[in-house]
Design brief:
Blueprint (H helix, E strand, L loop, with lengths): L1 H12 L1 H20 L19 H9 L15 H16 L1 H7 L3 H30 L10 H28 L4 H11 L2 H11 L2 H23 L1 E7 L3 E2 L8 E2 L3 E7 L6 H10 L1 H5 L9 H6 L5 H22 L2 H10 L11 H34 L6 H4 L4 H24 L25
Antiparallel strand pairs: 1-4, 2-3
Helix pairs in contact: 2-7, 2-8, 4-5, 4-6, 4-11, 5-6, 6-7, 7-8, 8-18, 10-18, 11-14, 14-16, 15-16, 16-18
Length: 442
Amino acid sequence: MRAFFNTLKDIWNHDELRKRIVYTMILLLVYRVGSFIVLPGVDSSMLDSGSQSGLLGFLGVFTGGAFSRASIFALGIMPYISASIIIQLLGLAVPTITKLQREGESGRKKINQYTRTLTIVIGLVQAPGYIKSTIPANAYPSDSFGWLIAAVLIITCSTLFVMWLGEKITDKGIGNGISLIIMTGIISDIPKGFISEWNAQSPFFFLIELAVLLVVVGAAVAIIQAVRRIPVQMAKMNMGGGGHMPQGEGARSYIPLRVNSAGVMPIIFAQAITFVPLYLRQTEALQDSNILASLTDVQSWGYNVLLFASIILFTFFYTAIVTNPNQIADDLKRNGNFVPGVKPGKPTADFIDEVLSRITFPGGVFVGLIAILPSLVMMLGLTKEQQFSVFFGGTSLLITVGVILDLLQQIESHLLSRHYDGLMKTGRVRGRNNAVTSGFTA
């Protein structure tokens, strides 16, 4: 305990780190305050005060309750994430986007502009559907076309403001801004979810649920931290200046390949994909579709299969973006290093790619199983309240664990740069590799 308080003292004494943490907390507070601001013209007393069920309840978790409160931040950061998904997928098919992705910083800035523009378009499309499907007709002036236009513009502009908050946190704060905003919305409902489950269950069974929850948390940390090490033989070092001096053997090192190299981005993007059927059902033509109804029911196999498959797909997709076997092989060859038993160059790249594929698939399957765990425990009747089950593993837990580990890693780096002991006595808090997307890093 004394070491913990000494660490907090070190953090406070680190000027840059203290400023970054305070800056981040202020912007997150702004986001939380905005999530309670109801749209102008909406009668908050007419809104459903209870927690929403189904997929809308999951969406409410990501927005910290702003979705059900008819807040100006009702859509949260989801339009921006959807825009990022579309831009990333276009990078596989559109040569112009692919070229920009390879142009470094200048290309990244242009892609960011495209992503922001697409965010506006998606916000303008989703906002009317949100108003019509979620806010009761008697809670707002439904006969006023001018009010509807104003509400759509407010929601869209608020989404851009949330996006701006996330970018500022990433640039001047600590941690990844977009991920922190999502995590803030998730953890804000944790006390309410635990209280509701405590009231619905017997104390003994509730303690069993908490014990299982701790096991799931430990499993999530293990899969995020898991690393496959490929041994590397360093170049031999000359022990003297003359030709008669012996050479020393090169040092042994390794290439750390993470089982979950893509981090939390496949989980976030896969969850965004599951919201697409929900938006499609808002149209009158598709409102009675049985297929879409199955894909929007969190206790149906259709929804769980879609989420599971999307996570595996995006895991491979983002692992390919984050880890480039050809670049690793070229760097090894350029420095005179090699993998024992493997020829330098293309054979090394193929070997690394094969190892990466072997560890990515089970990693994606494991993450997918944890992601659908809340739906499974509800289908089996092991939990009484959905508000609690969303933390019983699932996307919420994976995002929270991943973001916290990244945050600890960044704090650790700042502390070690000033020769402090760090958060742990070992001085080595391992976080995930940052997954670079078109508009943000997670």
